Amino acid sequence: DLDTARQELEEFIPHVKNISDSSIKKMAGRDLMRFKEFKKQGIAVKFGRFTQKENKQIQKNVEEFLSLTGIDSAEKLLFTSRYPEDKDTIHRLKIEHHFCEKISEGIPRPWRLIYYRARKMFDPNNYKGRYTTEEKEKLKKYQALHGNDWKKISELMSRSNLSVAMKFSEIKSAINYGPWTKEETQKLMNAVKEVMSRKLKTENPSSLSSLEQSNTDPWIDREKLYQQLPWTEIETKVGSRYWRQCKQKWNSILTSKLTKGQQLYRGTNGLQAKINLIKRLYETKAEDASEVNWDELSNAIGDVPRTYVQAKFYRLKVSSVPLWKRKTFSEIIDYLYEKKLPELQEKL
Questions:
Q1: What CDD domains does the entry give (predicted)?
Q2: What angle do CA 300, 305, 308 make, to 5 degrees?
Q3: Residues 246/239, Cβ–Cβ less than 8 Å
Q4: How many CB atoms lie under 10 A from the CB of residue 144?
Q5: Residue-wise pLDDT tens for the chain (348 aa)?
Q6: Which stretch of DSSP H or E encloses residue 327?
């Protein structure tokens, strides 16, 4: 029963109303029982970035499935279409040995997200380094022939779908690497406001109406929406900047507006902010950066976006933690708490 399945899934996935019927049917079969088991254990369904622990579990699940079935590589298992002569055999083994259940074992996430993560981890085409001049020319030629069919282009170039899409976005037009002009900045702000207003109108029309009647802009009042912005669309509207530049500039503009230009990381305020940030990070007991709720943590510094807090944490660990690249996230936090925190408190 599709309606019942959707209703039951809503307990675990708040945005289930936006998911297609065909996806609901798949999730009812692959995920619902798993979600209920995790609930009994007091474990919530997760979204967002995968943790190191989850990545290791995926690796373990894949390796165990390969051992169980005799399939000789993760690439064959996860990119079966690249091996047409083995396709039927691999498909049969997946069904016989319950591939969906095995690959998602121990991970409280929708199966589809686990599968996509596994494909990203085990795709050898993801680790081919920088694009050569010849590859860039090929990419432009293939895009002219096949449009934005990135799956087709990725097969022709032996690169991942995401890699070719992002690289084409970067090279498709002349990119300006100099300071932002007033005209470019205004184009960016207009583009962001347009997509945010559209998103807000879709989610909550009455909220947009009330905001439009106030003296403030909805795109500033609803700053948290910046995380889901369609940056490639914004890049097209700006015209002269690569999507990542647009994102970085927007975060800079947003931070400036929310802090009203205050230098929060200066003097005694800066020392106190660092102390608060270290304490709050230590209290989370997180094993990985992706387990931290950076939005909630942002008030340790001020009313700023999560990217602002993440940038400050990055500078803090680089400047304070010796050999930080060799340490785990929790080891870095422990070091900051035990060594750096007393030093900052004394200085304050």
A1: SANT
A2: 75
A3: no
A4: 8
A5: 778 888 888 888 776 776 777 778 888 888 888 889 998 998 888 877 788 888 899 999 999 999 999 998 998 999 888 888 888 999 999 999 999 889 999 999 888 889 988 988 888 877 677 888 888 889 989 988 998 888 889 888 888 887 888 788 777 655 667 788 889 999 998 998 888 777 766 655 554 444 444 444 444 444 444 456 788 788 888 888 877 788 888 877 776 665 554 555 567 877 888 888 899 888 877 777 777 777 777 766 666 667 778 878 888 888 898 888 878 788 889 899 999 999 999 998
A6: none
Do 345 and 275 touch, CB atoms closer than 8 A?
Answer: yes
Token code pair at residue 157: 């170039």
CA distance 192 to 198: 10
What is the value of pTM for the model shown? 0.53
Do the beta carbons of residue 273 and residue 284 sit within 8 Å?
no
**Contact of 45 with 108, CB cutoff 8 Å:** yes
Residue 145: alpha-carbon gap to chain centroid: 30
d(CA 161, CA 156): 11
With b for 16 or more beta-carbon neighbours within 10 A and e for fewer, the 4-36 pattern comes to ebbebbeebbeebeebeeeebeebbebbbebbe
User: What are the tokens at 269?
Assistant: 């305020």
- CATH number for the domain running over 133-172: 1.10.10
